[in-house]
Amino acid sequence: MAKASRSREAAVGAGRLNEAAVVEAALALIAERGLEGLSMRALGEKVGVEAMSLYHWFPAKERLLDAVADRLLVKVAIPALPSVATWRAWVIGVARSYRRVALAHPRAFPLLAARRFLSPGALDFLQANIAAHVAAGFSTREALRLTRSLGGFVNGIVMAEVAPSPCGQSAPLPPIGQVLDERQWSETLEALRRPALDGAFEYGLACLLDGALPQRGKPASRTRHK
After folding, report:
1. What is the mean pLDDT of the chain?
2. Per-residue model confidence as pLDDT tens digits over 110-164
3. Tell me: the pLDDT tens digits for 11-21?
């Protein structure tokens, strides 16, 4: 009888839910416990239903993780396609928006950084970036390579930003090494303590975009690195 009662409660609870609400609850649970703390059982407890009820929307946990990643990506502002003249501003704007979303959800962000473009939202995001580069005069192959390069850079920088600082104000100073002199090492430590990786995001993004334009239209390199 108790089991039947729990099943009825789950059915009633599931009737109050929808897919979007479950995804939002999963995102909140990740914020509280991290990705390792997300399970169907824990999520069911959070929304007040049995875990099995959640499989109505997500037959596997991987599908749920895809949906959470898509929920983050939909928060990224994607403007209309740029012209050649506005391409750089378009890329910078999208990259900054992506970073803001990532920093707002540091415990869920690894879903974007580590998962391949397999979900509907991720594929839409990929196509929007490729289309923007093509509109600026890059070939489709160049656009994909540039999208991958920018994505790898932005994801890497943000992963570093959300990680604990190795040189906080209270941390002991590491010893001087064998390469830098005392002044250079002191300047390095000072920069390591500055917030936002001392502006590495904007600096690196500018370097990438400056380097991309001269490569537009050049034959793809066939060099293989061992």
Report:
1. 84
2. 998 887 777 889 999 999 999 999 999 999 999 999 999 999 999 999 998 887 6
3. 445 457 899 99
Tokens of 58: 């997500």
Q: Look up tokens 């415990």; give the residue.
A: 107
Alpha helices, DSSP H only, in 36-86?
A: 40-47, 51-54, 61-73
Neighbours of 123 (CB within 10 A): 12
Helix (H, G, I), strand (E, B) or coil at 45: helix
Residue ranges matching CATH 1.10.10 in the chain: 2-59
Distance between CA atoms of residues 145 and 136, nearest Å: 14
Question: Does the domain at residues 2-59 carry the CATH identifier 1.10.10?
Answer: yes
Domain with CATH 1.10.357.10 in the chain: 77-215
- 85's CB contacts (< 8 A; 6+ apart) are none
Half-sphere exposure of residue 212: CA atoms within 13 angstroms, side-chain side: 24
* CATH 3.40.50.10840 assigned to 77-215: no
> CB count, 10 Å around CB of 139?
14
Is residue 58 within 8 Å of residue 22, measured between CB atoms?
Answer: yes
Q: How far apart are CA 136 and CA 116, in angstroms?
A: 25
Q: Residue 64 pLDDT more than 90?
A: yes
